[in-house]
Amino acid sequence: HAADAHRTDLMTITRFVLNEQSKYPESRGDFTILLNHIVLGCKFVCSSVNKAGLAKLIGLAGEINIQGEEQKKLDVLSNEVFIKALVSSGRTCILVSEEDEDAIIVEPSKRGRYCVVFDPLDGSSNIDCGVSIGTIFGIYMVKDDHEPTLADVLQPGKQMVAAGYCMYGSSCTLVLSTGKGVNGFTLDPSLGEFILTHPDIRIPKKGKIYSVNEGNAKNWDGPTAKYVENCKFPKDGSPSKSLRYIGSMVADVHRTILYGGTFMYPADKKSPSGKVRVLYEVFPMSFLMENAGGQAFTGKQRALDLVPTKIHDRSPIFLGSYDDIEEIKALYAAEG
Ligand code: AHG
Ligand code: MN
Ligand code: MN
Ligand code: MN
Fold this sequence. Notes:
The protein is α+β, with helices and mostly antiparallel strands. The protein contains eight helices and 15 strands. 2,5-anhydro-1,6-di-O-phosphono-D-glucitol binds near residues 98, 122, 247, 249 and 276.
């Protein structure tokens, strides 16, 4: 069949979300409009990433961001594109970006009810060598039209109404959850549309892969060290696990959701809160992980229960297959 070789029912991300939202009588299409602006940002970043070498987008921008990191040209460009797309959607009131010290309060004439927290370009260290990078976003909704404040975004991750990421890899894939399951869409470059290719993604209950920066091992706490030791030298006769670590959270989490296993950025003696940031890295990925049937744990509690006190707070994170995270939780519980 021609229809087998070529997809003929083109379920675009816009159609998919419109269908989903039409189940809510109060929905006025605002979420779909917001998402369309996020999608536009992702398409722009995707095209910039693909021609980074040609368009002189490789290398440093010359500034240090609030995280103490040297910004790459693509960090700065992606940040600008997302801010402009989000503000011009007319559906946002407050934005938090990894690259900006302060939250952005949207001017009154352009305000809507959504708060968006985002990492415009994740995996910056992988840009210049052409390895997969991504964009991460989380969305909260304010209940009334009060003057937006930081309190609107300093909310536990379980209050998010949606979260997702876009991976700029061998193909461009957008993975989204609005709180009922997880769906993946692949950009068809000739159509310029994200098409549903991964409906209702479920993470395997148990995995054969672990993912962590083992270069930090000398500073790990007991349970992290014990878990990784068990991955390599299992006590119960099960086969040892494979190590995969890209160093782009989006790509490492994407593989984890599809293949199963664990992704960790644990605490260590030098960074007691780990490295990844709560609002725009830990929360969106934990939201997706739980919606795909996995778990996300900080070493102390369910990650989505964390209450951030500052917009750039960090937290240790263990996320992945349900059974594998149970094992990590048991090691922390045994430590007391
Ligand atoms: P970003 O590029 O947005 O600053 O995020 C980098 C993060 C994350 O993508 C990745 O998982 C982690 O840093 C890798 O850190 P290490 O190089 O310390 O392993
Ligand atoms: Mn960074
Ligand atoms: Mn990041
Ligand atoms: Mn980033």
